[in-house]
Amino acid sequence: MTFQRARTEEQREVRRRAILETASAMLDEMPVAEVTLNELSRRVGLAKTAVLRYFESREAVLLDLMDDRTATWLTALEQELAHAVDLDRKAVERAGQTADVLGRSLAAQTALCDLYGAQGGVLEHNVSVEVVRRHKHASLGNLAVMAGLVRRFLPEVGDQAEEFCLTVLLTAGALSAYTSPPPSLLAVYESEPALAVHRIDLRTALQRAIMTALVGMLPRS
């Protein structure tokens, strides 16, 4: 991909979207830790200095990408919940259905989970106050959408919905770090299967964690 110099706001937005889309494609191939500004620049067809005109750092690119991917995921999640959760069921049954959907849906978003795992310790560093402010506004907006979905299908959660949703996203990020073992660890598991007893399956672990959190929020009957 080769670009001419951007001279209008529309052209600048095209460059910005191309950078985000290229970073997104890279995350489908590699973990967050391996995404570099040099490789991103090479793939998008811009000089590194040109990329930095649109995003002040690698972390700024990935924060915007995390916000975009979260919004896209939430659109799909709404349809998944509507299809799977039976509003005529009792609260504990709907909680189980909701936990199943959230766990399955998030586990399929491996890049998004990786981004959440890197958010606090990596991505929110090496960025300016303005970038963090924009990211936090987007994050709060996405969290409000997710909480609204949870309250629609589990109104019993009530005012705890935002806290629950934040916990789900942070748990997905934390667990994702342990679901793709490096080659050395895989070799150990293969040579001594007993050591793999606590190997994590992201979908199963998420569903259990989410259900545990939801049960604690439901009113006692």
From TrEMBL:
GO terms for molecular function: DNA binding. InterPro entries: Homeodomain-like_sf, HTH_TetR, TetR_C_34. Residues 13-73 form the HTH tetR-type domain. Keywords: DNA-binding. It comes from Lentzea flaviverrucosa. Residues 36-55 bind DNA. PROSITE patterns: HTH_TETR_2. The lineage of its organism: Bacteria, Bacillati, Actinomycetota, Actinomycetes, Pseudonocardiales. This is Transcriptional regulator, TetR family.
